[in-house]
């Protein structure tokens, strides 16, 4: 699962991936036409084409899966917050980088905001005001960046966007009005070697190592 995790944009897709991987190994329960002979490379290269096929064949609904994914997490957090927190982790150095940053930090994530807030508070010991957390349902990240750069308090400031999904950064580059953003691909996140090599050849994108992350927040 960790090998195909880079294709996930929104949490509910993990449910699809787990089922697809199981079906690829167990023909007796297979209901998808794409599962037979499927490899990790196939998923990494073709997830955008595979996903709508399995969604239709399994008669799944995106909104219903998002609600289910969130409901299960809510119930887990309500019943045993400690084990839910323990099942997550931050990369080394990230909590301190956030905690001691002299920059104004915004969290732009495809997680639902309440989960991002809980992880920041309980696991990292960091409190980010709710108005600075843009989670699932607040719109595409490109839209959020446009909103942020228009704020009066951000005029004349250097704007930095750190992301671990190359496709998202490429979407930002397509928008001329976002040319003022400094873009970084976090090489410690859920991306592949092939994506990192591609990013290295895109002039707008800087590869960012985990050890340098805190420096960007000063």
UniProtKB/TrEMBL annotation:
InterPro entries: HAD-like_sf (IPR036412). One of its GO terms (cellular component) is endosome. GO terms for biological process: SNARE complex assembly. GO terms for molecular function: SNARE binding. This is Uncharacterized protein. It comes from Gossypium davidsonii.
